[in-house]
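Quick start: what a row looks like.
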Amino acid sequence: MKDVNIPNGVWPTMLTPFTNSNEVDYGALGQLVEWYIAQGVHGLFAVCQSSEMFYLSLEERVGIARFVKEKAAGRVPVIASGHISDGFDEQVEELQCMADTGVDAVVLVSNRFAGPEESDEVWLNRAMQLLDRVPNVLFGIYECPYPYKRLMTPKLLKWCADTGRFGFLKDTSCDLTHIAEKIDAVKGSPLKIFNANSATLLESLRLGAAGFSGVMANFHPDLYVRLTECWDLETYTAEMIQSFVGPASLIELQMYPVNAKYHLQKIGLPLAMHCRTRESSAFRENQRFEVEQLDTLYYLFKKQFMTKQNVNV
């Protein structure tokens, strides 16, 4: 297994651009990769739920992961999931295919190894089998809320850390007590905890979280980059950014990912609004206004609080 360091910071959950004829738009995807990197992100999380992975064929999932890895060209590391199958043998196949793309880590979906009523022992047994059947691969874990949310317990996470085969957890608990327990469980290991929740981000960084991996890095990645890089040195700036990104993240509840594609359109990226998970034609005028008004507020916020004069070290 190659020695890969998962850097702290911001890992956007990448969108998948589609053409209006429902094909993956690799031209737009390439420009999207360039935009994320230009915003200063520290890594890219491709083929996740934001990527509409449950609506992608295995060929599409593998193709997107390989393309993003090649397009990033070593400027930032790339991790990918695409772990959607129900059957364990099918999961092994798709995860091996993903590993073969050359991504820096393959991310397991926490709810795939055990059903809602099955125990952590069932999960552990299948994870052990996977490590044997897909050797020499660094893994991550994503507490994906679909089709059901299975949060990792500190005990199970410690087992993952002790194997030396895991480097990334996308935590979706939105609970600082749970996050603190997980951070404590993996202390001293290479396994890093990334918070997906905007409202608790600053407090989680103070607890020892490694950074942010969530939806809102498709809207304001530069603010999350600044927050994860300055939180312990520029306290005033960090507090102001947190006060913005928490309430701004309510846009997640509107019509994601259609609204994120609309936002990226408005700032100049060539993304069609077409999605496979939602009907873009249902995106109402008032919802468009909400995205546009949030964008205006973002630019005003940056002008007011992100200038050098307002940095308080």
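That is the whole record. Strands lie at 9-10, 44-46, 78-80, 105-109, 139-142, 166-171, 192-195, 211-212. The longest helix spans residues 285-305.
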